Amino acid sequence: MDILIVGGGVIGLGSALELALGGATVTVLERGTCGGESSWAGGGILSPLLPWDYPAAVTDLTQLSCRLYPEWVARVAEISGIDPEYRVSGLRVLPPFGAERAVQWCAGQGVRLEQDGEGLWLPDVAQVRNPRLMKALRLALERMGARIVERAEVTGIVSTENRVERLDTTAGPFAAGCYVVAAGAWSKKLLGKYGVQLDIRPVRGQMLLYRAQPGMLRHIILQNGTYLIPRVDGHILVGSTLEDVGFDKATTGEARAELHARALGMLPQLAQAEFIKHWAGLRPGSPDNVPIIAQHPQLENLFLNSGHFRYGVTMAPASAKILANRLFNRERPSDCSSYDWPRLN
User: Fold this and answer.
1) In this structure, are residues 68 and 321 in contact, taking their beta carbons and an 8 Å threshold?
2) Which domains, from first to last, does the chain contain?
3) What pLDDT is attached to residue 344?
Protein backbone atom coordinates (compact mmCIF):
# COMPACT_ATOMS: atom_id res chain seq x y z
CA MET A 1 0.00 0.00 0.00
CA ASP A 2 1.05 3.58 -0.71
CA ILE A 3 -0.04 5.67 2.28
CA LEU A 4 0.18 9.41 2.90
CA ILE A 5 -0.07 10.50 6.55
CA VAL A 6 -0.81 14.12 7.43
CA GLY A 7 0.68 15.01 10.81
CA GLY A 8 4.12 14.36 12.28
CA GLY A 9 3.17 14.07 15.93
CA VAL A 10 3.27 10.90 17.98
CA ILE A 11 0.03 9.61 16.44
CA GLY A 12 1.19 10.31 12.88
CA LEU A 13 4.70 8.92 13.33
CA GLY A 14 3.44 6.01 15.42
CA SER A 15 0.94 5.16 12.69
CA ALA A 16 3.64 5.48 10.05
CA LEU A 17 5.86 3.05 11.95
CA GLU A 18 3.12 0.43 12.30
CA LEU A 19 2.15 0.72 8.64
CA ALA A 20 5.75 0.62 7.45
CA LEU A 21 6.38 -2.48 9.55
CA GLY A 22 3.35 -3.99 7.79
CA GLY A 23 4.97 -3.44 4.40
CA ALA A 24 3.37 -0.16 3.32
CA THR A 25 5.21 2.64 1.53
CA VAL A 26 4.71 5.64 3.80
CA THR A 27 5.07 9.40 3.38
CA VAL A 28 4.49 11.79 6.30
CA LEU A 29 3.54 15.43 5.72
CA GLU A 30 4.00 17.86 8.61
CA ARG A 31 2.94 21.53 8.58
CA GLY A 32 5.80 22.50 10.92
CA THR A 33 8.45 20.20 12.34
CA CYS A 34 7.81 16.64 13.47
CA GLY A 35 6.84 16.40 17.13
CA GLY A 36 6.79 20.18 17.50
CA GLU A 37 3.26 20.54 18.87
CA SER A 38 1.41 18.70 21.67
CA SER A 39 3.53 15.54 21.32
CA TRP A 40 6.55 17.54 22.46
CA ALA A 41 4.66 19.70 24.95
CA GLY A 42 3.02 16.98 27.08
CA GLY A 43 4.27 15.13 30.11
CA GLY A 44 4.39 11.53 28.90
CA ILE A 45 2.48 9.83 31.73
CA LEU A 46 1.37 6.48 30.32
CA SER A 47 -1.97 6.34 32.09
CA PRO A 48 -5.10 8.46 32.39
CA LEU A 49 -4.58 10.63 35.45
CA LEU A 50 -7.42 8.94 37.35
CA PRO A 51 -8.48 6.07 35.09
CA TRP A 52 -11.55 5.24 37.15
CA ASP A 53 -13.01 8.61 36.15
CA TYR A 54 -12.96 7.81 32.42
CA PRO A 55 -15.25 5.80 30.14
CA ALA A 56 -14.24 2.30 29.05
CA ALA A 57 -13.46 3.56 25.54
CA VAL A 58 -10.56 5.53 27.03
CA THR A 59 -9.25 2.99 29.54
CA ASP A 60 -9.53 0.05 27.13
CA LEU A 61 -7.31 1.91 24.68
CA THR A 62 -4.82 3.15 27.27
CA GLN A 63 -4.49 -0.27 28.88
CA LEU A 64 -3.87 -1.91 25.51
CA SER A 65 -1.23 0.72 24.78
CA CYS A 66 0.43 0.17 28.15
CA ARG A 67 0.71 -3.53 27.37
CA LEU A 68 2.24 -2.75 23.98
CA TYR A 69 4.57 0.01 25.15
CA PRO A 70 7.60 -1.95 26.43
CA GLU A 71 8.06 -3.90 23.20
CA TRP A 72 7.04 -0.95 21.03
CA VAL A 73 9.46 1.51 22.57
CA ALA A 74 12.25 -1.08 22.64
CA ARG A 75 11.86 -1.58 18.90
CA VAL A 76 11.93 2.17 18.28
CA ALA A 77 15.08 2.46 20.40
CA GLU A 78 16.73 -0.47 18.61
CA ILE A 79 16.11 0.96 15.14
CA SER A 80 16.94 4.58 16.03
CA GLY A 81 19.67 4.14 18.64
CA ILE A 82 17.87 6.72 20.84
CA ASP A 83 16.57 5.84 24.31
CA PRO A 84 13.10 7.40 24.76
CA GLU A 85 13.52 6.93 28.53
CA TYR A 86 10.58 4.63 29.06
CA ARG A 87 10.51 4.04 32.81
CA VAL A 88 8.09 2.45 35.28
CA SER A 89 8.18 5.11 37.97
CA GLY A 90 4.80 4.65 39.67
CA LEU A 91 2.11 7.21 40.44
CA ARG A 92 1.17 8.52 43.87
CA VAL A 93 -2.29 10.12 44.09
CA LEU A 94 -2.76 12.59 46.92
CA PRO A 95 -6.23 13.41 48.33
CA PRO A 96 -8.90 14.31 47.50
CA PHE A 97 -9.97 11.29 45.43
CA GLY A 98 -12.72 8.68 45.45
CA ALA A 99 -10.93 5.81 47.20
CA GLU A 100 -13.83 3.36 47.06
CA ARG A 101 -14.35 3.89 43.35
CA ALA A 102 -10.61 3.62 42.70
CA VAL A 103 -10.32 0.35 44.61
CA GLN A 104 -13.31 -1.17 42.82
CA TRP A 105 -12.11 -0.14 39.36
CA CYS A 106 -8.54 -1.34 39.90
CA ALA A 107 -9.75 -4.67 41.28
CA GLY A 108 -12.03 -5.17 38.28
CA GLN A 109 -9.28 -4.30 35.79
CA GLY A 110 -6.47 -6.20 37.46
CA VAL A 111 -4.53 -2.99 38.15
CA ARG A 112 -2.29 -2.99 41.21
CA LEU A 113 -3.30 -0.37 43.78
CA GLU A 114 -2.12 0.22 47.31
CA GLN A 115 -3.53 2.62 49.89
CA ASP A 116 -0.49 4.33 51.36
CA GLY A 117 -1.40 6.51 54.34
CA GLU A 118 -3.79 9.12 52.99
CA GLY A 119 -2.78 8.54 49.38
CA LEU A 120 -3.08 5.91 46.66
CA TRP A 121 -0.07 4.21 45.09
CA LEU A 122 -0.17 2.81 41.54
CA PRO A 123 3.25 1.12 41.23
CA ASP A 124 2.99 0.04 37.59
CA VAL A 125 2.38 3.45 35.99
CA ALA A 126 5.13 4.25 33.49
CA GLN A 127 6.31 7.35 31.68
CA VAL A 128 8.24 8.23 28.53
CA ARG A 129 10.21 11.37 27.71
CA ASN A 130 8.25 12.92 24.85
CA PRO A 131 10.99 14.86 23.00
CA ARG A 132 13.29 11.83 22.99
CA LEU A 133 10.46 9.58 21.81
CA MET A 134 9.70 11.91 18.92
CA LYS A 135 13.36 12.06 17.84
CA ALA A 136 13.56 8.28 18.05
CA LEU A 137 10.38 7.73 16.03
CA ARG A 138 11.49 10.10 13.28
CA LEU A 139 14.95 8.57 12.97
CA ALA A 140 13.53 5.04 13.03
CA LEU A 141 11.17 5.88 10.18
CA GLU A 142 13.93 7.46 8.13
CA ARG A 143 16.11 4.38 8.60
CA MET A 144 13.20 2.21 7.47
CA GLY A 145 12.89 4.20 4.25
CA ALA A 146 9.82 6.30 5.05
CA ARG A 147 9.66 9.76 3.51
CA ILE A 148 9.12 12.72 5.85
CA VAL A 149 8.29 16.14 4.41
CA GLU A 150 8.24 19.03 6.88
CA ARG A 151 6.82 22.54 6.40
CA ALA A 152 4.21 21.13 4.05
CA GLU A 153 0.85 22.51 5.14
CA VAL A 154 -2.22 21.07 3.45
CA THR A 155 -4.13 23.81 1.60
CA GLY A 156 -6.73 21.67 -0.14
CA ILE A 157 -8.17 18.18 -0.52
CA VAL A 158 -9.05 17.24 -4.08
CA SER A 159 -11.56 14.41 -4.45
CA THR A 160 -13.43 12.68 -7.24
CA GLU A 161 -16.69 10.96 -6.37
CA ASN A 162 -15.89 8.90 -3.25
CA ARG A 163 -12.07 9.05 -3.27
CA VAL A 164 -9.32 11.53 -2.49
CA GLU A 165 -7.21 12.13 -5.59
CA ARG A 166 -4.50 14.36 -4.12
CA LEU A 167 -3.59 16.85 -1.42
CA ASP A 168 -2.49 20.34 -2.33
CA THR A 169 0.15 21.68 0.06
CA THR A 170 2.56 24.58 0.43
CA ALA A 171 5.25 22.14 -0.77
CA GLY A 172 3.30 21.12 -3.87
CA PRO A 173 0.74 18.38 -4.61
CA PHE A 174 0.98 14.89 -3.08
CA ALA A 175 -0.94 11.80 -4.14
CA ALA A 176 -1.22 8.29 -2.72
CA GLY A 177 -3.53 5.31 -2.71
CA CYS A 178 -4.62 5.97 0.87
CA TYR A 179 -4.64 9.02 3.15
CA VAL A 180 -4.53 9.27 6.95
CA VAL A 181 -5.18 12.52 8.80
CA ALA A 182 -3.38 12.57 12.15
CA ALA A 183 -3.08 16.32 12.53
CA GLY A 184 -4.08 16.57 16.19
CA ALA A 185 -5.84 19.81 17.11
CA TRP A 186 -5.70 20.92 13.46
CA SER A 187 -7.49 17.84 12.08
CA LYS A 188 -10.99 19.30 11.78
CA LYS A 189 -9.65 22.58 10.39
CA LEU A 190 -7.56 20.72 7.82
CA LEU A 191 -10.46 18.55 6.67
CA GLY A 192 -12.69 21.56 6.09
CA LYS A 193 -15.96 20.48 4.47
CA TYR A 194 -14.88 16.85 4.86
CA GLY A 195 -14.73 17.15 8.65
CA VAL A 196 -18.37 16.17 8.96
CA GLN A 197 -19.67 15.59 12.48
CA LEU A 198 -16.22 15.96 14.04
CA ASP A 199 -15.84 17.63 17.43
CA ILE A 200 -12.06 18.05 17.66
CA ARG A 201 -10.86 21.40 18.99
CA PRO A 202 -7.65 22.86 20.43
CA VAL A 203 -7.35 22.85 24.23
CA ARG A 204 -4.32 24.69 25.60
CA GLY A 205 -2.17 23.16 28.29
CA GLN A 206 0.63 25.06 30.04
CA MET A 207 3.63 23.32 31.63
CA LEU A 208 6.62 24.25 33.80
CA LEU A 209 10.08 22.64 33.92
CA TYR A 210 12.57 22.64 36.79
CA ARG A 211 16.10 21.33 37.16
CA ALA A 212 16.60 19.54 40.47
CA GLN A 213 19.09 17.12 41.92
CA PRO A 214 18.48 13.60 40.58
CA GLY A 215 16.51 11.63 43.14
CA MET A 216 14.63 14.60 44.64
CA LEU A 217 11.48 13.01 43.23
CA ARG A 218 11.41 9.36 42.22
CA HIS A 219 7.78 8.85 41.19
CA ILE A 220 4.93 10.81 39.60
CA ILE A 221 2.71 12.76 42.00
CA LEU A 222 -0.86 13.81 41.24
CA GLN A 223 -3.24 16.00 43.21
CA ASN A 224 -6.37 17.79 42.03
CA GLY A 225 -5.36 17.53 38.39
CA THR A 226 -1.83 18.87 38.89
CA TYR A 227 1.06 16.45 38.38
CA LEU A 228 4.82 16.36 38.89
CA ILE A 229 6.89 14.08 36.65
CA PRO A 230 10.54 13.29 37.47
CA ARG A 231 13.00 12.60 34.67
CA VAL A 232 16.10 10.44 34.95
CA ASP A 233 18.46 13.44 34.93
CA GLY A 234 16.64 15.29 37.72
CA HIS A 235 14.38 17.53 35.64
CA ILE A 236 10.83 17.79 36.99
CA LEU A 237 7.81 18.71 34.87
CA VAL A 238 4.74 20.38 36.37
CA GLY A 239 1.42 20.41 34.53
CA SER A 240 -1.01 21.35 33.38
CA THR A 241 -3.81 23.73 32.55
CA LEU A 242 -6.95 23.02 30.49
CA GLU A 243 -7.90 26.14 28.54
CA ASP A 244 -10.42 26.57 25.73
CA VAL A 245 -8.78 29.52 23.94
CA GLY A 246 -8.67 28.38 20.32
CA PHE A 247 -5.36 28.19 18.47
CA ASP A 248 -3.53 30.37 21.00
CA LYS A 249 -0.30 28.91 22.40
CA ALA A 250 0.64 31.92 24.51
CA THR A 251 1.74 31.36 28.10
CA THR A 252 0.37 33.42 30.98
CA GLY A 253 1.83 34.65 34.24
CA GLU A 254 -1.33 33.60 36.05
CA ALA A 255 -0.94 29.96 34.98
CA ARG A 256 2.76 29.97 35.86
CA ALA A 257 2.08 31.28 39.35
CA GLU A 258 -0.76 28.81 39.93
CA LEU A 259 1.20 25.78 38.73
CA HIS A 260 4.24 26.81 40.76
CA ALA A 261 2.18 27.25 43.93
CA ARG A 262 0.45 23.88 43.49
CA ALA A 263 3.77 22.17 42.83
CA LEU A 264 5.34 23.62 45.98
CA GLY A 265 2.35 22.44 47.98
CA MET A 266 2.92 18.90 46.73
CA LEU A 267 6.74 18.96 46.89
CA PRO A 268 8.13 21.74 49.11
CA GLN A 269 11.71 20.73 48.17
CA LEU A 270 11.00 22.10 44.69
CA ALA A 271 11.81 25.53 46.11
CA GLN A 272 15.47 24.44 45.91
CA ALA A 273 15.20 23.60 42.19
CA GLU A 274 16.08 25.90 39.31
CA PHE A 275 13.19 27.08 37.14
CA ILE A 276 14.01 26.34 33.49
CA LYS A 277 11.07 26.87 31.17
CA HIS A 278 7.37 27.63 30.75
CA TRP A 279 5.52 26.57 27.59
CA ALA A 280 2.10 25.71 26.18
CA GLY A 281 0.75 23.16 23.74
CA LEU A 282 -2.58 22.58 22.01
CA ARG A 283 -4.20 19.22 22.63
CA PRO A 284 -6.76 17.76 20.19
CA GLY A 285 -9.77 18.00 22.51
CA SER A 286 -12.59 15.53 21.98
CA PRO A 287 -15.78 14.51 23.83
CA ASP A 288 -14.88 12.34 26.84
CA ASN A 289 -11.24 12.04 25.60
CA VAL A 290 -12.34 9.40 23.05
CA PRO A 291 -10.38 9.55 19.76
CA ILE A 292 -11.61 8.72 16.27
CA ILE A 293 -9.69 5.96 14.47
CA ALA A 294 -11.87 5.33 11.46
CA GLN A 295 -12.59 5.47 7.76
CA HIS A 296 -14.27 8.61 6.43
CA PRO A 297 -18.02 8.04 5.90
CA GLN A 298 -17.91 9.42 2.34
CA LEU A 299 -14.33 9.08 1.06
CA GLU A 300 -13.29 5.43 1.03
CA ASN A 301 -9.52 6.03 0.97
CA LEU A 302 -9.43 8.67 3.72
CA PHE A 303 -8.92 7.72 7.36
CA LEU A 304 -8.64 9.66 10.62
CA ASN A 305 -6.51 8.96 13.69
CA SER A 306 -7.05 11.97 15.91
CA GLY A 307 -8.87 13.45 18.90
CA HIS A 308 -6.77 11.78 21.61
CA PHE A 309 -7.03 14.92 23.80
CA ARG A 310 -4.67 14.48 26.80
CA TYR A 311 -3.46 10.97 25.99
CA GLY A 312 -1.97 10.91 22.51
CA VAL A 313 1.42 9.68 23.72
CA THR A 314 -0.29 7.14 25.96
CA MET A 315 -2.61 5.83 23.25
CA ALA A 316 -0.17 5.93 20.31
CA PRO A 317 0.81 2.23 19.99
CA ALA A 318 -2.75 0.92 20.35
CA SER A 319 -4.19 3.57 18.03
CA ALA A 320 -1.61 2.70 15.38
CA LYS A 321 -2.48 -0.98 15.76
CA ILE A 322 -6.21 -0.32 15.32
CA LEU A 323 -5.57 1.87 12.28
CA ALA A 324 -3.30 -0.72 10.67
CA ASN A 325 -5.89 -3.45 11.27
CA ARG A 326 -8.44 -1.35 9.41
CA LEU A 327 -6.15 -0.47 6.50
CA PHE A 328 -4.76 -3.99 6.09
CA ASN A 329 -8.20 -5.59 6.63
CA ARG A 330 -6.86 -7.61 9.54
CA GLU A 331 -9.12 -9.25 12.05
CA ARG A 332 -9.83 -6.91 14.95
CA PRO A 333 -8.90 -8.50 18.30
CA SER A 334 -11.66 -6.54 20.07
CA ASP A 335 -14.64 -4.28 19.40
CA CYS A 336 -13.34 -0.91 18.18
CA SER A 337 -16.71 0.65 17.37
CA SER A 338 -16.21 3.27 20.09
CA TYR A 339 -13.61 4.92 17.81
CA ASP A 340 -15.81 5.01 14.69
CA TRP A 341 -16.54 8.24 12.86
CA PRO A 342 -19.56 9.99 14.40
CA ARG A 343 -22.75 9.05 12.56
CA LEU A 344 -24.29 11.49 10.17
CA ASN A 345 -27.63 12.86 11.31
Assistant:
1) yes
2) 1-87+127-199+288-345 (3.50.50.60)
3) 60
